Amino acid sequence: MTARTARALGQQPKAISMLAERLPPRTASTLGVVGVLAFLLGVLVGRLTTEDIRRRWH
């Protein structure tokens, strides 16, 4: 069972890279969207964890 699981996990990266080679525009779009969402999430977390901006500048 362990060997079969390892084999299946070993095939997944190969399948993903083959898909990325066949559909480069979709791959680029997906990575772009994920990057923008990660950036916005980082900004949101940063805003929620800081004090009020007006207090920092006065």
Structure characterization notes:
- By secondary structure, the chain is mainly α.
- It has a domain at 25-58.
- Helix content is 88%, strand content 0%.
- It is built from three helices and no strands.
- The chain has helices at 2-22, 24-48, 53-57.
- The chain starts with a helix and ends with a helix.
- The mean pLDDT is 81.
At a glance:
This protein is mainly α. 88% of the residues lie in helices and 0% in strands.
- How many separate helices? 3
Poorly predicted tracts of residues: none
Our measurement of the CA-to-CA distance between the termini, rounded to an integer number of angstroms, reads: 64 Å
Task: Give the fraction of residues assigned to helices.
Answer: over 70%
**Order of helices and strands, N to C?**
HHH
Structural class: mainly alpha
SS strand fraction: under 5%
Shape: elongated
Number of strands: 0
Radius of gyration: 20 Å
Tell me the major beta sheet.
none
Overall pLDDT score? 81
